[in-house]
Amino acid sequence: MAFALLDQIRSIFDGDPGVRKVADDPVLSAELLMLFRMILADGTVSESEMVAFRRICKDAFGIPETSIDAVIEYLNEFGYETNGSQAIALFRDLDVERRKQLAQHMAEIAKADSQLAETEVRLLRRTLDLLDISPVDVVKPEG
């Protein structure tokens, strides 16, 4: 109980830990921006896409559930400074597995609402081309 209170007090002075994590990692910020662009690609934000985004934030990046709304707010405030091409440029020099992970996360969000819009397909295809990733690499192996 005392530790939770101390964490809350510290977050008031230090900022949200999830936001700090994102702000301190340009590649993570870029990936989250690309995922957010995928959510917006079809012109609507579905609940299932947001559920997928939140799950990816928590499971793949260790962002606490309690921080995700603050992270989204941070991306909305500071994400406009980075366009999609700039975000992708941060990934070009990363290892192929990290680039595949971005593509897989984008595909997961695109498929989350069970409706794959042409705009989502185009964004994913363009991203794959820029990352030099084959569409085959986006399909997660069964196992």
TrEMBL record:
Pfam families: TerB. Coiled coil: none annotated. Gene3D superfamilies: TerB-like. Residues 33-138 form the Co-chaperone DjlA N-terminal domain. This is TerB family tellurite resistance protein. It comes from Mesorhizobium salmacidum.
